[in-house]
Write a sequence for this structure.
């Protein structure tokens, strides 16, 4: 498994399929532990991710780590993290369709190699990539969908959205995220 992922990563590091290769500092391939239990698919690298070459390392990533830790999970032991695209779009804009298409083979290969049982779809860009018929993250989040390789997929709010919505009142995005992460942990615990 690790050898195959390394091969894909090497190809990704050399990729020039779209113009994002011209402005990237680093390709952001993945982080966490490659495993067949839990994968999180984010949207696209931001500034800090581009600088460090790792997904979710800024403030949003720190919040994501705390969310996982709240139910006893960690990226170092339990979660494989990647994005729909591997290079940062200028000014952190949403990826264009041609950029997502250029990167899709890398995401598909990551999915094929790991065959994760649970896939978390983090944010609206990832939702659009993985479940294009779903209209919005607010209505899709917290629901289970059938995914590739007999996986279960759940859309969740992006942690950057949670940082902009500080309320923890019942029904707020942070409150809903707490419900979602507990449901995810229950499903995770059922996997042998």
């Amino acid at each position: 498994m690790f050898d195959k992922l390394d091969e894909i990563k090497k190809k990704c590091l050399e990729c020039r399929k779209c113009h994002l290769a011209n402005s990237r500092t680093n390709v952001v391939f993945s982080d966490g532990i490659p495993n067949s239990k839990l994968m999180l698919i984010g949207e696209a690298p931001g500034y800090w991710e581009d600088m460090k070459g790792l997904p979710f390392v800024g403030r949003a990533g720190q919040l994501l780590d705390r969310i996982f830790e709240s139910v006893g999970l960690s990226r170092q032991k339990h979660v494989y993290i990647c994005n729909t695209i591997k290079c940062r779009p200028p000014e952190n804009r949403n990826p264009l369709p041609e950029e997502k298409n250029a990167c899709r083979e890398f995401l598909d290969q990551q999915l094929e190699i790991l065959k994760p049982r649970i896939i978390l779809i983090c944010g609206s860009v990832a939702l659009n990539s993985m479940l294009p018929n779903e209209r919005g993250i607010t209505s899709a989040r917290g629901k289970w969908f059938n995914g590739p390789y007999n996986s279960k997929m759940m859309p969740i709010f992006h942690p950057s959205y949670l940082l902009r919505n500080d309320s923890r009142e019942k029904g707020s995005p942070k409150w809903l995220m707490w419900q979602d992460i507990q449901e995810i942990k229950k499903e995770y615990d059922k996997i042998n």
User: Anything to note?
Assistant: The mean pLDDT is 95. The first strand starts at residue 31 and ends at 32.
